[in-house]
Specification:
- This protein is an alpha/beta fold and 296 residues long.
- The protein has three domains: 80 residues, Winged helix-like DNA-binding domain superfamily/Winged helix DNA-binding domain (Arc Repressor Mutant, subunit A), CATH 1.10.10; 105 residues, Periplasmic binding protein-like II (D-Maltodextrin-Binding Protein, domain 2), CATH 3.40.190.10; 92 residues, 3-Layer(aba) Sandwich (D-Maltodextrin-Binding Protein, domain 2), CATH 3.40.190.10.
- The chain is globular.
């Protein structure tokens, strides 16, 4: 019988590439990970890895096991969901991961609705960058999470997760009221407020600006949209901001529409869609998104 925790370590090794990376992801020591993988090989009865010094590569059997592991994990999620569905209503812990804008705008109404309709649910919210959500779901630190991408920079789907569309929101160019800017094309010579290099927001801004024929000149770097809008209002530059983050812009900010959209999805482990708590959350947050007029 294969141990599912060890099988997950093998899949993480395939995804992350090194035992050290797997150890860091699980807060184990590399030695502990190696021991668990050696035990998994004994359980499987075949060699799964080739070891050359500190380097490991997969054998043919190792590749086969990783390819089939997704179906094993999905079957377990289906089983867990089915058992929960015959239990005593919607109850138990529900760990939610969401990016800051969604925590401020979508989650309050969602949590109120869930608390009213399903008082036995234990709701726990973690503010998290969408890039961190897939790993948190796979590691079972979250039960549901919000992911997003942009139509100009699509993110490749994660095969270990299922998701449903939540909303598609327009993206704006935020400019100071005092300036005479009327379009993105006018902003080529303006100072810009950019997100941290390497983040999705930073990449999107570069893509949008390059499509308009220029590279933005950074004056400030900020990742929180409230901070970005405050800097724009102070005349410190211009920035790209999704509509959800600019629902109530501060005085002194003007929003110019761009031909770009941010797309948000509700994600969970493959096979977990029918879990009563997951289904209840998905329904509640879709209602919250609809109520603010940001329908998919």
């Amino acid at each position: 019988m294969l141990d599912l925790r060890r099988l997950r370590l093998l899949c993480d090794l395939s995804r992350l590439g090194t035992i050290a990376a797997v150890a860091e992801a699980h807060t184990y020591t590399p030695s502990a990970v190696s021991q668990q993988l050696a035990t998994l090989e004994r359980e499987a009865g075949v060699a799964l890895l080739r070891r050359t010094g500190r380097r490991v590569t997969f054998t043919a059997a190792g590749h086969v096991l990783v390819q089939h592991a997704g179906a094993v994990f999905a079957a377990m999620e289906h089983t867990t969901a089915a058992l929960a569905a015959v239990g005593a209503g919607v109850s138990g812990p529900l760990r939610i991961g969401a990016f800051p804008t969604a925590v401020r705008t979508l989650l309050p109404a969602t949590l109120v609705a869930l608390g009213r309709d399903h008082p036995a649910l234990e709701l726990m919210v973690t503010e998290l960058d969408p890039a961190e959500v897939p790993a948190a779901l796979r590691d079972r630190r979250l039960d549901v999470g919000l992911l997003h991408d942009y139509d100009v920079v699509p993110v490749k789907p994660d095969p270990t997760l299922d998701s449903v569309p939540l909303l598609s929101e327009p993206v704006h160019l935020a400019v100071p009221n005092a300036g005479g800017l009327g379009s993105l094309a006018d902003a080529g010579d303006e100072p810009w407020i950019l997100a941290t290099a390497g983040t999705l927001c930073h990449t999107v801004t570069l893509q949008v600006c390059r499509a308009a024929g220029f590279v933005p000149r950074a004056r400030h770097h900020a990742d929180d949209f409230a901070t970005v809008l405050a800097l724009v209002a102070a005349g410190q530059g211009v920035s790209v901001v999704p509509a959800l983050a600019a629902a109530e812009p501060p005085a002194g900010v003007r929003l110019l529409p761009l031909d770009t959209h941010r797309r948000t999805r509700v994600a969970y482990r493959t096979g977990a869609a029918a879990h009563p708590a997951v289904a209840a959350f998905t329904s509640a947050i879709q209602a919250a998104a609809d109520s603010i007029g940001k329908k998919p």
